[in-house]
C-alpha cells in the first residue's frame, strides 16, 4: 500500500515536508523525485502524469500533489536531485581530488540509461520543449554549488580568481565527448590529466 | 533535368570521378554528399533512399549509384565531408590562430539544424544504429587530419609531444557544452581563452 507523506508525518506539524531531512518523508520525497526523473527521461515532460509517478515511487498520489502542487517545480527539483547525485562536488580540502571525483561520477551518470535519455532530450528541439527549459533550470541551480567550490579554492589561493562557468565547461566538456563518442575509455587517469592540464593552464594564464 | 555525371564526363575516361577535383563532377559529387548528409540528418541511415538523394541533389539516380555502389561508404563519405567543412583545421603556421578558427567553425556547425540533427542521432541508441557507426567512422577519418596539425606543431617545438586525441577533446569539449547548453554565447574571445588555457596547461604539465 502506498505511503501518504502528509498524513503520516507532516500534516500535524504544518511544516513543509522538506524541512525534515533524513526522515521517512525525506526518503519518500527522494523516491518521488527519482520516479519523476525516470518518467521524464522515458516520456518527456509533456507525457508526465502524477498517477504514474506515484505508482513508480510506490506512494499515494496525494503525496506527490501536496509536496509539489507545481508541476514545473517538481520536474526542476527532480532534475536537480539527479544532477547533484550525478556530480557531487565535495570540499575535502584537496581541490584536485574533488575535481577528479566530480568528473568520474559525471562520466558514470552520462553512461547510464537515464543520463543518456536526458541528454538526448536536452539536445532535441532546443528551446521548444518544457524539458529543455527544466534541464537548463536544474543546471543553473546545480551550477551555483559548483561555483561555491571554486570560490573556496580561490579564497585559499589554490587557483587564481576564475570565471566558474568557463572553468566548469573546460573540465566537463572533454568528459562529455569521451563518454558520448566512445572512442577511448574514460578512466581515472584521463580525469586526472584533464584536471592537471586545466588547473595548470588556469594558473599559467592568470593575469 | 538532372545531370548524369558518368555519361557526361567520366564514362569515356574510365576513371573514378573523384580523380578530377574542381571540375563539374567534383561539384556534382559534393552536391550528392551534401544531400546525403541532409537526408541522413532528417530520416536516419535506415530511411535513406538513392532516389531521394538524387532528387535533392538535382542529379540522375545513376550518378549516385555509380559513384557510390556501397551505401555505407556513401554515408561515411558524406559525414566526412560534412565534418571537414564543419571544422577545417588549417596550417597557417600560427597554431593558436588555427585552433581558434577551428573552434569557431565547429561551434557554428554545431548550432546548425543539420549539425543538431546529427548530434541528436549520434547520442540516440548508441551502438545500435548504422548512423552511430557512420558518425564514428567519419570521426575517425576526420581525426587523422587533426592529428597531422598537432604533429606539425610538435615538430616545430610549439607544443610538447602530446596525445592528439586527448588534446582534441580538451579543446572541443567546452565548445560543445557552450553551444548545446546555450547559457552563455560562444564568442571568439571564449575560443581564445580555451586555446590559451589548454596550450598553457599542456606546456606546463609536459613531463
TrEMBL record, chains A, B:
Q: What is this protein called?
A: HTH-type transcriptional regulator
Question: Per its UniProt record, what SUPFAM superfamilies does this chain match?
Answer: Homeodomain-like (SSF46689), Tetracyclin repressor-like, C-terminal domain (SSF48498)
User: Where is the segment annotated Disordered?
Assistant: 1-26
Looking at the record, the residues that make up the HTH tetR-type domain are 26-86
What GO molecular functions are on record for this protein? DNA-binding transcription factor activity; transcription cis-regulatory region binding
In what ranges is there compositional bias, type Low complexity?
Answer: 10-24
- For this protein, the DNA-binding region equals 49-68
Q: Which superkingdom does the taxonomy of this entry point to? A: Bacteria
Keywords, sorted A to Z: DNA-binding, Transcription, Transcription regulation
Amino acid at each position: 500500500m502506498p505511503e501518504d507523506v502528509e498524513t503520516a508525518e507532516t500534516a500535524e506539524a504544518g511544516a513543509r515536508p522538506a524541512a525534515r531531512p533524513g526522515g521517512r518523508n525525506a526518503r519518500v520525497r527522494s523516491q518521488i523525485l527519482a520516479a519523476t526523473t525516470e518518467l521524464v527521461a522515458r516520456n518527456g515532460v509533456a507525457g508526465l502524469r502524477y498517477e504514474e509517478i506515484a505508482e513508480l515511487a510506490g506512494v499515494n498520489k496525494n503525496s506527490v500533489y501536496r509536496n509539489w502542487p507545481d508541476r514545473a517545480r517538481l520536474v526542476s527539483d527532480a532534475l536537480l536531485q539527479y544532477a547533484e547525485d550525478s556530480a557531487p562536488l565535495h570540499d575535502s580540502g584537496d581541490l584536485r581530488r574533488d575535481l577528479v571525483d566530480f568528473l568520474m561520477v559525471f562520466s558514470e551518470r552520462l553512461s547510464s540509461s537515464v543520463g543518456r535519455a536526458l541528454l538526448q532530450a536536452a539536445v532535441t528541439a532546443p528551446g521548444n520543449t518544457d524539458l529543455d527549459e527544466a534541464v537548463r533550470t536544474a543546471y543553473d541551480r546545480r551550477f551555483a554549488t559548483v561555483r561555491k567550490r571554486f570560490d573556496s579554492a580561490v579564497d585559499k589561493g589554490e587557483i587564481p580568481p576564475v570565471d566558474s562557468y568557463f572553468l566548469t565547461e573546460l573540465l566537463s566538456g572533454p568528459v562529455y565527448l569521451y563518454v558520448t563518442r566512445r572512442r577511448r575509455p574514460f578512466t581515472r587517469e584521463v580525469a586526472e590529466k584533464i584536471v592537471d592540464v586545466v588547473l595548470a593552464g588556469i594558473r599559467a594564464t592568470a593575469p
